[in-house]
Amino acid sequence: GLPILIGGSGPKVTLKLVARYGDMWHSFGDADDYRRKNAILLEHCANEGRDPAEIERFWGVDDLAHADEMAEAGAQHLIVEVGGDGERYDLSPLQELVRWRDRVS
Question: In sequence order, what E strands does 1-105 have?
Fold first, then answer.
């Protein structure tokens, strides 16, 4: 079926919904935020009888200087914003992410 991505990190409702229904989870913050929220998700998965490995983790980052730490913490997909005004876009965050990916792959 069509996979379900749930965004957010509310510990009582959203992460419980991710554990119950989500195929993918998306949130944002630093590595400490990820570790803290992922630990809560793991608890909810245990309560639901769900294998947490079934849920892909997507994480929005503002600063790719911490990409290694995010990957080590368990984020499987990193997301960067490509800002712009509708005519021109700043692709430098994307280019930096691709360079990081190619270096660690």
Answer: 5-7, 24-28, 56-60, 77-79
